[in-house]
Amino acid sequence: MHSFLRRGKDLFCEGAPLGEIAARFGTPLYVYSEATLARHTRVFDEAFAGTEHLVCFAVKANPSLALLDLLARHGAGADIVSGGELARALAAGVPGERIVYSGVGKTVAEMERALDAGILMFNIESFEELEALDAVAGRMGCKAPISLRVNPDVDPGTHAYVATGLKTSKFGIPFASAIAGYERAGALRHIEVVGVDCHVGSQITEVAPFVDAVSKIGELVACLRGRGFGIRYLDVGGGLGITYDDERPPSPAEYGRAVRDAMGVTGLTLVLEPGRNLIGNAGVLLTRVLYVKESGDKRFVIVDAGMNDLLRPSLYDAYHAVVPVRDEGRAPFVADVVGPICESGDFFAKDRELPEVGQGDLLAVMSAGAYGFSMASTYNSRPLAAEVLVRGERAALIRERGTYADLTRGERLPEFS
Ligand SMILES: *Cc1c(COP(=O)(O)O)cnc(C)c1O
Question: Is the separation of the CB atoms in 179 and 216 below 8 Å?
Fold first, then answer.
């Protein structure tokens, strides 16, 4: 469910026509629906009603301050993976006790900042990291609350780049070493064991991988409790998929039921780390057609957004629906929708049937709210796109378009030139 619907010929975001928004703010432009994000957040939360739980939005999916602020006001916490994301979450008003810190490569400086902020827990991914955190907490005269990220070795059935819970992945501690890991953690003076964590992947479209992972982790919790560990949190990560094309992922309610049934242990606070599920279908990327080029047997619709604005098709071969913002009911044609970047991997759609479009037409790349702007770069020296948030009929700029001055900020000639 999202709020990008057509009224007559024109595509709207809630009550605001996307054509007008593009005319006002320019393209390429990310547009988000506040109602969709709020609704997804509420529905996800309700899926765990009756169970102690904390929903920590995976900031890496979309770190916009305005969106984090909205999420924080709806009671969400944050799952962060860097000091930068910590700074953003705090700036957006997410309280430290609702922040969990994931990621394989936390630096000492990042650990210090997170301890200062009093975060809920560190999700630890190696013994080396555990020892480093113990030392940092010792120097600061405190105890660091931790979970070990345990790798349950389940196949989430998604793209290899977003499968994170397999034995061969760089993430987490092997399931077989988990008990030994906890014994080691328990022996460290400045570490407080508070939870168990896992995250098996992203864009998962069935419940089975979650059920497998959570039941394994639940057994581990029972075993750890038997050994005297005061486990309070069960963090099951994120990964619930969305519909980009014709996927039929479980609803948050089905997912919630499956996770709660699989836990097998009681008296725990569940921690959830959804990213894509909350924001993915709450955003679109608007882009204008520059040229339609016929080249041999191929037709290319060349648009003013590129892989630097939305990397998912290039990186994951991901599908995004591409639709005209104004649908004149023209007959369909088949084309590749491509950007201006000097890379053959710079495309949004290949051999796609869409209503015939021409120069100046506006297109919406759908489901671009997650891992869209957050992965944007200035490759080819293209300023970052602007971002707009819609509430009802109102549209507000939440991020200014980048400028050429931004591109060279901080650059200088060497002293010896
Ligand atoms: C990326 C990530 C998430 C969010 O994944 P989604 O598929 O966007 O829900 C949650 N937890 C961890 C540890 C992650 O790396």
Answer: no
Task: Indicate whether 157 pLDDT > 80.
Answer: no
> Does 397 lie in the same domain as 349?
yes
Q: What is the C-alpha to C-alpha distance for residues 337 and 410, in angstroms, rounded to an integer?
A: 34
The rounded Å distance from CA 272 to ligand 1 centre is: 9
pLDDT of residue 265: 85
Residue 413 lies in a domain: no
Catalytic, out of 13, 56, 198, 342: 342
Query: Is 401 a domain residue?
Result: yes
Crossing angle between the packed helical segments 108-116 and 127-140, to the nearest 10 degrees = 50
Please report whether residue 45 resides in a domain. Answer: yes
Q: How many domains does the chain have?
A: 2
| Ligand 1 site-directed mutation target among 199, 203, 371, most atoms within 8 Å of CB | 199
Q: How far apart are CA 131 and CA 259, in angstroms?
A: 31
342 is catalytic: yes
Q: Are 335 and 301 in contact (CB under 8 A)?
A: yes
Q: Which residues form the pocket of ligand 1, taking CB atoms under 6 Å from any ligand atom?
A: 58, 60-61, 79, 102, 199, 202-203, 237-239, 273-277, 370
Q: What is the pLDDT of residues 80-127, one digit of tens each?
A: 999 999 999 999 999 999 999 999 999 999 999 999 999 999 999 999
Both 211 and 348 in one domain: the answer is no
In the predicted model, what is the mean pLDDT of the chain? Answer: 96
| Ligand 1 nearest-atom number relative to CA 197 | 13
Atom of ligand 1 nearest to the CA of 280: 8
CA of 255 to the centre of ligand 1 (A): 15
Quick check: is 416 in a domain?
no
Kind of pairing between the strands at 4-7 and 10-13: antiparallel
Closest atom of ligand 1 to 149 CA is 13
Query: Are residues 305 and 375 located together in one domain of the fold?
Result: yes
* The dihedral sign for the CA sequence 311, 312, 316, 317: negative
Clarify whether residues 231 and 250 are in a common domain.
yes
Q: Tell me, what CATH number does 148's domain have?
A: 3.20.20.10
Structural domain range at position 299: 4-32+280-408
Q: How many whole angstroms from 59 Cα to the centroid of ligand 1?
A: 9
Instruction: Say which CATH number the domain at 286 has.
Output: 2.40.37.10
Which amino acid does the sequence have at 281? N
